[in-house]
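EI: anyone free to look at a 315-residue chain?
SC: sure, send it
EI:
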Amino acid sequence: MPDRLPPLTALRAFEAAARHLSFAKAAEELNVTPAALSFQIKSLEAHFGQPLFLRLNRAVELTAAGKALSPGTTEGFDRLAAAWRSARRLSESNTLSVTAGPAFTAKWLAPRLFQFAQDHPEIELRFAATLKIVDLARDDVDVAIRFGRGPDVGLHSRPLAQEWLTPVMTPELHRRYPTVESLKSAPLLHDDSIAFLDPPCDWAAWFRAVGEDFAPTRGARFTQADHAIDAALNGAGVVLGRRGFIVKDIAEGRLVAPFRTALAIDAHFRFVCLPGTEDRPAIRAFHDWIIAEIAKLAHISEEFTFVDVKDVSPK
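SC: here you go
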């Protein structure tokens, strides 16, 4: 049996067929005919000197040799694809692919992107608004904006700002509910997008922070934070708003935050990229722009007294 490697096309055909355990599905994935794929596998078996598949009536199975070869070929093609993507990203130095959650994209990025485009006309931004945790080494993405506690193992990760929550409403609604006591009878909106946090960062926690034993359960519930904020902006009720999504509306008068107590939480937004890419000019420019934009409204945070949600969680 020769030591030299077989043709790459034959190995690619084998890898797809071994992964699917189907010549037909592998041929469809590789956009070739089943006959062409079968020919490639037969040539690989001839090169190897023994069968790699057992051909059954309506299926195929790997032989012992095929099982030994399959994991290495899959890993090899995955690493080759990752290397190709990395090299292509370097050649596309003025293109930046960013993924962020739908709420962050809608409430933070979209209202501010005009300024970034003005300051960096040479950078072409591409956005994917999704809650899926993408694999930066495998997917065609340069930067991820993630929310939570992490950790971001094996990645370059920087926190963007401390997160906090406080009640916000329109100025008109505030005239009807000016006090904490009156707030108990207000239409309270629930942002369930952070229901995964423990301890809970909800209305009951905020009321405990201001010394009130009140745990509201009624009111509209939203799985997306931006939808809850939009409802508040339209006067539908009062929402326990997260810093990143409300400071711009507070600064511009669309929302008011009349109660100066805010829940401090340890979950936060992070700027995440592959190690070694953080100093790539487009990535560095995008990171520095985000930090500068956050700093513009940092003074709003100074107006609140913060209570750690852990200090008011039920014992």
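EI: The mean pLDDT is 92.
SC: 👍
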